[in-house]
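Chapter summary example.
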Amino acid sequence: MHITKLISWLSKHKINVVEDTLQADGCRVLIFSTPLPAFPFGDRHVWATLVLEPGQIDVSESEIESLIRHCWHGELEIPRDAG
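The structure predicted for these 83 residues follows.
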């Protein structure tokens, strides 16, 4: 999935980019955050990191699956038409 579409899709599910940095080696590092369920966690968040190689614009399905599981959204189905 193209990174722009991924970010847009994730934001619809309250998984947002909180930091987007370009490293000296050309890698782009995106840090996502989302709130945990109110019960039993209260007002807590989790964070997940996605590292893109220089020039990388597409994210593999396995990386997306890992990201959404880490963000406690394993129930989400990755859109097949997202390209």
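To summarize the output: The domain at 3-76 is CATH 3.30.920 (Metal Transport, Frataxin; Chain A).
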